[in-house]
Design goal:
Elements lengths: L10 E10 L2 E11 L4 E6 L5 H9 L6 E6 L2 E2 L5 H8 L2 E4 L11 H12 L4 H14 L15 H12 L6 E5 L7 H18 L2 E5 L3 H7 L2 E6 L4 E6 L1 H6 L5 H7 L3 H13 L1
Parallel strand pairs: 3-8, 3-9, 6-7, 7-8
Antiparallel strand pairs: 1-2, 1-4, 4-5, 9-10
Helix pairs in contact: 3-4, 3-5, 4-5
Length: 267
């Protein structure tokens, strides 16, 4: 998944069906992600956003359909190839998922110890570099309980960056953060996209983040169990042809209120 040699989408999803047993949570899911995108998966509660992210990460097998990474069929290939693809991705879970008994440097070092042959000194240096990239220089020997929630998110992001991934998966990265910390995290995502040429796939319903940093979104709909809209969120918000459920989401119900007022005035 080398962005310099990549031709076509970095990620391509085709005719994906996802569910549990005979229950279909979402169907006919199809979209593409280009290298350098900050791609948001959004929608109402219970629509399957986080489940779709798990399928993309290889944590849950789809009922049917295909996911291509750099032209490789992720679920249609052998396990070794699938693991090689996974090593080119990083994950920031909603809680940060840091080991409480480890320092920040030890948390970031963990994937380097597991997946590289680097010596201890080199790993320690790389862990410090990744923490510095996320604004945590000097906090190497702190434990997660000794820092703020926003800093824990950044430490989790530093660990996700440990193996220099092409793609970062973020599950509700702003959850539990105050507006200032959330804005700092958005700024950091933009900075990492520019400096490291990282592609982001983010599950979130935070409109401020969506309008600030998203290059593209998909909206998953509870009723139809599929994608109801895809594209630049600013263009979707301003386009009257956008499905009402999507407009309501992007305007915090403002589109529905405007429709009701128009109907009332017409009557």
């Amino acid at each position: 998944m080398d962005g310099t040699a990549q031709q076509g989408p970095l990620v391509s999803v085709r005719n994906l069906y996802v569910g549990y047993g005979s229950f279909v949570l979402m169907k006919d899911i199809a979209f593409s992600v280009e290298a350098g995108d900050i791609f948001f998966i959004t929608g109402g509660s219970g629509c399957g956003k986080s489940t779709l992210l798990k399928v993309l990460m290889g944590l849950k097998t789809p009922q049917s359909g295909q996911i291509f990474y750099g032209g490789q069929d992720f679920y249609g290939t052998d396990e070794d190839t699938r693991n090689a693809i996974k090593k080119k991705t990083g994950v920031l879970f909603q809680s940060g998922a840091l080991w409480s008994s480890m320092t920040l440097a030890e948390n970031v070092a963990l994937p380097l110890e597991q997946y590289t042959d680097l010596d201890g000194e080199s790993i320690r240096e790389l862990a410090s570099v990744k923490l510095a990239l996320t604004g945590l220089a000097g906090f190497e020997d702190y434990y997660p309980s000794e820092i703020s929630g926003g800093m824990r998110k950044r430490a989790g992001l530093a660990r996700a960056l440990a193996l220099d991934p092409s793609i970062l998966f973020l599950d509700e990265p702003s959850a539990g953060l105050d507006p200032v910390s959330s804005k700092h995290l958005d700024d950091l995502i933009l900075e990492l996209r520019e400096t490291l040429e990282t592609t982001f796939m983010i599950v979130s319903h935070e409109l401020e983040s969506i309008f600030s940093i998203a290059t593209k979104i998909i909206y998953l709909d509870n009723q139809s169990r599929t994608i109801r809209a895809e594209g630049d969120p600013r263009l979707l918000r301003d386009d009257p042809a956008t499905p009402p459920c999507v407009l309501d989401f992007l305007t915090r119900g403002g589109a529905r209120k405007a429709r009701e007022e128009h109907i009332h005035e017409s009557a």
